[in-house]
Amino acid sequence: MKNLSNKEIPEDFMREEYQFDYSKGVRGKYARKTTEENGYIMLSPELQKIFKTSEDVNNALNAVVHALPKSMKRTSPTV
Predict the structure, then answer these.
(1) Per the domain annotation, does 73 fall within a domain?
(2) Domain limits at 67?
(3) Could you point out which of 22, 33, 54, 56 has its C-alpha 20 to 30 Å from the C-alpha of 65?
(4) How many domains does the chain contain in total?
(5) Dihedral of the CA atoms 61, 62, 66, 72 (nearest 10)?
C-alpha cells in the first residue's frame, strides 16, 4: 500500500462489512478460557516473589503431592 500520510483518505476507503464498532468490543474476552485450556495459571503477587520460575512451582507442588496420604491423591484427573 502506498504511503497515504500526505494524502487525504477517502471516506469509502474500506467496505462497510469491514467497519467495526470498537465501543462494543470486550478486551480479553477469550483470554481466560485459552490460558486455562493450555494449563496456565496466575500466581498471586506474594507467590510470584517466592517462585520465580515454573520449575520452582512444579518442585513445590510435587513435594506437596508426595507428602499427601495415598487416599487423598487423585487416580485420574477430572477435566
Answers:
(1) yes
(2) 44-79
(3) 33
(4) 1
(5) 50
Q: In the structure grid, which three cell numbers stand for residue 40, read together?
A: 496456565
Q: Name 42's Cβ contacts closer than 8 Å, sequence gap at least 6.
A: 35
Whether residue 54 is contained in a domain is answered as yes
Say what the pTM is: 0.46
Amino acid letter, 3: N
> What are the pLDDT digits (tens) for 54-70?
899 999 999 999 998 88
Residues 8, 2: Cα–Cα separation, whole Å: 12
Q: Is residue 34 part of a domain?
A: no
In a domain, 79, yes or no: yes
